[in-house]
Amino acid sequence: ADEREELSWEAFGAASRELAQQVAADGYEPDIILSIARGGLFVAGALGYALDVKNLHVANVEFYTGVDERLPVPIMLPPVPSVVDLSGARVLIADDVADTGATLKLVRDFCAGHVADVRCAVVYEKPHSSVRCEYVWRRTDRWINFPWSTLPPVVRRRGQVLDA
Ligand code: 5GP
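^ thats the input. predicted complex w/ guanosine-5'-monophosphate below
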């Protein structure tokens, strides 16, 4: 799979709406949306509005260091979500993509035993993912370019006016 899958901001808008419709049609009413930073924050924000859920939490997971380059295992960085906050809740985990599935598995296992129910919503799921997400917009085995991470970080240029 040499070619990349491109997701535009516009397509993301439609994708997140369709994902929310899947959740609603399934009758799942989450109390909490748990996003996986950073990519999952966009998905969680869109799902939060579309599903009328205001209770959004964040899990910070570090795994990828480049295109298809990973640390040995995903690790949760502080601040770790509070299990007290999650206790007894119906949780919807939101992320951009389930690739190996290791990131989602880490967060799902973290929730298990504390929550009433936990399900996963992703924009993309790759066929080899170890986690089967309940709600998926598209499946692909390509590397995906997301609109929020396609451009490199901004830099301060020489002579740039900062407070015009
Ligand atoms: P996993 O743990 O399922 O292998 O990977 C999950 C995370 O890795 C995603 O949330 C994302 O940040 C990153 N990732 C995995 N595959 C891709 C991809 O195809 N494109 C981009 N941009 N990020 C990816």
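The mean pLDDT is 95.
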